[in-house]
Design goal:
Number of helices of chain A: 6
CATH topology of the largest domain in chain A: Alpha-Beta Plaits
Number of domains of chain A: 2
Shape of chain B: flat
CATH class of the largest domain in chain A: Alpha Beta
Distance between the termini of chain A: 72 Å
Distance between the termini of chain B: 52 Å
Shape of chain A: globular
Strand order of the largest sheet of chain A: 2-3-1-4
Number of helices of chain B: 29
Strand content of chain A: 25-35%
Oligomer: heterodimer
Largest sheet of chain B: 8 strands, antiparallel
Radius of gyration of chain B: 32 Å
Helix content of chain B: 25-40%
Helix content of chain A: 25-40%
Largest interface: A-B, 20 and 18 residues
Strand content of chain B: 5-15%
Order of helices and strands of chain A: HEHEEHHEEHEEHE
Number of strands of chain B: 23
Structural class of chain B: alpha+beta
Radius of gyration of chain A: 19 Å
CATH architecture of the largest domain in chain A: 2-Layer Sandwich
Chain lengths: 176, 882
């Protein structure tokens, strides 16, 4: 009986210590990726996806750091969370620190592109631009023929994105 | 002008005696039973010396200086040739006076008897010298002893030599320290695989694999339009075909699981130097039997649409042996089979195979023309053409009906495995266990290990004696004397005392047995074979392996000879007889050289591995059909049927054959095909990949088909350089052979068959004009796949006419076939000789000729069938004597 009581206490304590944390999420290149992210998050023990701000690629997760990221220093939790999520999704999702640039300072860039109506191709194109310093969020849809990005204009610009895309054989369409 | 008949009355009595004496010919050394040597000398003087004296020396033969001592090998060989030329009527030449027939016959008989007598001393020690097993025999023997039907050993043994056309000949089967070292390695490998190391069999897994393995070749070409992913026979909606833009970043697709959703793979491209389609996700960890099923079908692709196919395509399944780190392509492989892929009809094929360590399955869309959509605008979405679809491949295994497996039981019977415990085995070493590293991209993993297990005996020497008493006679194919067995038991005892466990000690004995002369050599007694030796000779002939239990039982009971006919039938009916057909034809008809060259891609763009494999399959199936139906010798060179599949039938211009399987097909009345000389395989092994040579093909026909090997070419004569520009024909280039009498003496015999075979190109296709990559007329496509580009032109016309040495003329290959088909005795004698060399491991001696003639006569009395000939050979003294 005693062990059971101890277990209940421990669980209650864990629940009591859970908190919400907002992180930037990589891999959110289209709205339907939310479903994928929810499924992926379930593979990370002790972490729940609470809400998602798709436009800014930010999500709120709830977890108890002491349980979900046991023996991890607080400053390394994002990195650890990133490792776990990447392992669970073959690196199609990841976790990053929030971008310091205020959202109202971000510029939305739209780049018309041509390519396969293929989810993996969208991921590939997304990854080309998302890895550029200054890009805080991006989407890719070859079905709609459009890539979008929220950028910090002080750190990057449209030409840099277009150059990176062309270097990876993404066909850019003429601007409308 | 001489009038031989008129002087004949003096021939024996006066004139030639005087001539002989005047010539000073010494007849010392001639056999004492010669009929009348002086008569022979006179005959030679009268009819031969004019051309073959020291001055003229035609054909390099100077009869005056030719030693009359037949016991000298060089002289013996020349006298055999003289005998043969006289017997065939080739000499004296037609433009010289003919000797009286009675004189000719008498001289031939004298020569024959003299040669036979002279040969006797050479044969005193037996005609077949002791010989070791060939690589193939070794491999088959191990496979059959241990019931490991696919264990690969031959490739790791040194290549065998060849003598008189076959590697089974004792003259070619020398042994060196390299052989011995390799035999030790091979024995260790066999024992590693045979001995069970766990009390339970490896877990049986059933996996369904996609051809589009992440990171593999197929995934890559699909990304770029040489293939597509399909769902329900339509393009996979989640993976559209590569179009104006190809798919981006293969790695991203792999991470998204694009190739692991169970989609069907449709390919437009066959295997080539840079594309090796593999089912790479399963890399064999546990050698053994596996059951494989796979589903394939074909379709017509039309810019994004899946439509009914043009017909049944062919899909090839191969076993690939990974090498190095297992990455990349072009690993060595062998074909498991070609399978039908019907139009829009997923068809499951199943087979049981043996897989060795680090083997995987390879695939090829064999019947497709080369496609290169990756380099074209629009990629798959602008391509219209045939495709082969692979739904999946399912592999199940390793399958062990009993555990420990038969291989282990052959060594250790029912002695149990026990777990190794150091405390219970003080002073005894644990058995060594060899770890084989899995290479490549396999996702299958080994079973968890459950400690070290070993074969353990409480009465080791008694068990050793019992086990070796069962194993040694089987391995040595004969009873083993007690003292011999005792030596092996003593070895076990020695190793036990040295601290080995029972299993390891026994392993020493087994390795010694597998490296012993009793195992490696065909041990045959002097003179007539005993029943065990006969059983061995028979089984190594028709199975290329050791005798089975029934043969040994018959030998033990002394009943083998009485049952020989039935046993031959039994052996031929067994699937193992295919080993004989493959091995014999590989050497007799040189099928082993089928891949010795790659035909020029510009001249012969339609050639591909599927065609080549079909060619070999045709020749093998044809020989099998000749044996099964007991057809006569004329079928060696002429036939009203062929063994074809669709690819070969198309190549031959024969309609109405669909599918990849070889079957008997009646030939149209006007068809030029039929018999070995018109088969693609024969025509390819006698060509160099660019051009054909009547000399090479003619020599092949004389040597392999007619049994009249031509003289080797003079050392200072360069080979004819092919003219692929189309300016001159080979016949024009060989004109010298007709104009130069020295050349003509041989080439009038060699060239005719080759000229007739000029009707077929280097890949066995019919031609009435030579292909050219230079000048010429535009070439019609003919039966060449419309998806194959053609750049060759049509050059000069082919002249396939010729004239045999006996001045019979033929206009084409059909007429030559008819002439050759009339030479049934000659054809049968040659085949009998070839089979005899193959089966007895020795060349045919002059004194064997009578025996061969006799068996041919009996064969012809029995209808002339080739199966009858086989029986006659096996029943003959020649076969049953060492």
């Amino acid at each position: 009986m005693k062990p059971l009581l101890f277990l209940l206490f421990a669980l209650a304590t864990a629940v009591a210590d859970e908190a919400s944390f907002t992180h930037r999420v990589t891999g959110l290149f289209s709205p339907d990726r939310e479903t994928d992210l929810r499924a992926a998050t379930e593979k990370v023990p002790g972490v729940k996806l609470v809400s998602l701000d798709f436009a800014h690629a930010e999500a709120v997760f709830s977890y108890d750091p002491a349980v979900a990221f046991k023996d991890t220093k607080p400053e390394q939790i994002v990195e650890r969370f990133n490792d776990l999520l990447r392992n669970a999704t073959r690196s199609t999702f990841g976790i990053a620190k929030l971008d310091p640039t205020p959202k109202d300072k971000l510029t939305r860039v739209e780049i018309p592109v041509a390519g396969m109506d293929c989810k993996a191709c969208c991921l590939a194109a997304y990854e080309v631009i998302y890895q550029i310093n200054g890009v805080t969020a991006a989407t890719a849809s070859f079905k709609e023929g459009m890539l979008t990005a929220l950028i910090d204009s002080s750190r990057t610009n449209r030409e840099a994105l277009e150059t990176a895309l062309k270097n990876r054989n993404v066909t850019l369409k003429a601007k409308p | 002008m001489r009038q031989p008949n008129k002087i004949r009355p003096h021939f024996r009595n006066t004139t030639f005696r005087l001539v002989g004496i005047c010539l000073g010919l010494t007849l010392a050394g001639l056999p004492s039973n010669a009929a009348d040597p002086i008569t022979a000398e006179a005959f030679l003087k009268e009819h031969c010396a004019e051309c073959h004296d020291a001055t003229e020396k035609k054909g390099g033969l100077d009869l005056a200086s030719l030693p009359r001592n037949f016991s000298k090998p060089e002289a013996f060989g020349l006298w055999v040739k003289i005998h043969d030329r006289l017997e065939s009527g080739e000499m004296p030449p037609r433009n010289k006076p003919r000797p009286p027939e009675a004189d000719r016959a008498e001289v031939i008989k004298w020569l024959h008897d003299s040669l036979v007598t002279a040969e006797e001393p050479r044969l005193q020690e037996g005609r077949t010298r002791i010989r070791r097993m060939t690589r193939a025999e070794y491999e088959n023997t191990v496979r059959d002893i241990f019931d490991m039907p696919g264990i690969a050993l031959a490739g790791d043994l040194p290549p065998d030599g060849s003598a008189h056309g076959f590697d089974k000949n004792s003259d070619a089967l020398d042994i060196s320290h390299v052989n011995l070292a390799k035999y030790v390695e091979a024995a260790d490998h066999v024992l590693d695989l045979a001995i069970a190391t766990q009390p339970q069999a490896p877990i049986v897994h059933k996996e369904r694999l996609s051809l589009a393995q992440p990171g593999g070749f197929v995934a890559h070409v699909i990304m770029n339009g040489d293939g597509v992913l399909l769902r329900d026979m339509q393009p996979d909606p989640e993976f559209p075909p590569a179009a104006a833009q190809t798919h981006l970043d293969e790695g991203a697709h792999e991470r998204m699981g694009t190739f692991e959703r169970g989609s069907t793979v449709g390919l437009f491209r066959h295997e080539d130097e840079s594309f090796s389609p593999y089912f790479a996700a399963h890399v064999t960890i546990y050698p053994g039997r596996y059951r494989v099923r796979w589903s394939v079908w074909s379709f017509q692709w039309d810019k994004g649409k899946v439509l009914p196919a043009r017909g049944t395509e062919a899909a090839r399944l191969a076993m690939v042996q990974l090498t190095g780190d297992g990455r990349g392509g072009q690993h060595p492989s062998y074909v498991l089979g070609y399978f039908d892929a019907p139009s829009l009809n997923p068809t499951e094929h199943e087979m049981n195979v043996w897989m060795n360590h680090n083997e995987i399955f390879g695939f090829n869309a064999a019947s497709l023309a080369p496609a290169a959509n990756y380099a074209k605008e629009g990629h798959a979405m602008t391509f219209t053409g045939p495709g082969v679809a692979v739904d999946w491949l399912e592999i199940e295994g390793p399958i062990n009906e009993v555990w420990p497996p038969p291989a282990h039981r052959a060594l250790f019977g029912d002695i149990p495995l026990v777990e190794w415990k150091a405390e219970a085995n003080s002073g005894v070493r644990a058995p060594a266990r060899k770890k084989v590293r899995q290479i490549g991209a396999g996702r299958n993993r080994p079973d968890p290990e459950n400690g070290v297990w070993m074969v353990h005996s409480e009465q080791p020497l008694a068990d050793a004696d019992r086990l070796l008493a069962a194993f040694l006679p089987r391995a040595f194919r004969a009873p083993v004397a007690d003292e011999v067995r005792a030596q092996y038991v003593a070895k076990v005892d020695e190793r036990l005392k040295a601290g080995d466990c029972f299993e390891t000690a026994m392993r020493w004995a087994y390795r010694a047995a597998l490296c012993s002369p009793d195992f490696l050599y065909h041990v045959e007694p002097q003179g007539p074979l005993d029943d065990y030796a006969l059983a061995g000779r028979l089984s190594y002939f028709l199975w290329n392996s050791l005798p089975d239990a029934r043969l040994l039982e018959l030998a033990k009971a002394g009943k083998l000879r009485a049952s020989l006919h039935d046993e031959v039938e039994r052996l031929l009916a067994d699937s193992k007889s295919q080993r004989f057909i493959d091995d014999f034809l590989g050497q007799w008809l040189k099928l082993r050289s089928i891949a010795a060259n790659d035909p020029d891609k510009k001249l012969y763009p339609e050639f591909n591995p599927y065609l080549q494999d079909s060619m070999v399959a045709e020749t093998r199936a044809y020989f099998r059909e000749l044996l099964d139906k007991n057809l006569d010798a004329s079928f060696l060179v002429r036939s009203d049927f062929a063994m074809l599949n669709e690819r070969l039938a198309t190549h031959y211009g024969i309609e109405g054959v669909a599918g990849s399987q070889i079957r008997r097909v009646p030939l149209p009345p006007d068809c030029l095909r039929g018999g070995f000389l018109t088969q693609g395989a024969i025509l390819k092994v006698t060509a160099n990949g660019t051009t054909t040579s009547p000399v090479v093909r003619g020599a092949f026909t004389m040597d392999r088909i007619l049994g009249q090997p031509p003289e080797p070419p003079p050392a200072n004569i360069p080979s004819v350089e092919p003219d692929v520009r189309g300016a001159t024909t080979i016949r024009e280039q060989l004109d010298k052979h007709r104009s130069d009498s020295t050349c003509a003496s041989c080439h009038r015999k060699i060239d005719p068959a080759g000229f007739a075979m000029e009707a077929f190109d280097v890949i066995g296709g019919f031609r009435d004009r030579y292909r050219s990559i230079g000048s010429g007329d535009p070439a019609p496509r003919g039966s060449i796949d419309p998806f194959i580009g053609i750049s060759f032109k049509l050059g000069p016309p082919v002249d396939a006419s010729g004239e045999l040495p006996d001045e019979r003329k033929f206009a084409n290959i059909r007429e030559l076939q008819s002439m050759l088909a009339g030479e049934k005795t000659l054809l049968l004698k040659n085949l009998a000789a070839q089979l005899a060399v193959y089966s007895t491991g020795r060349s045919i001696f002059f004194s064997d000729r009578d025996e061969i003639s006799a068996m041919v006569n009996r064969t012809q009395s029995g209808g002339g069938g080739l199966r009858t000939l086989l029986h006659e050979l096996i029943q003959s003294r020649l076969f049953q004597t060492r």
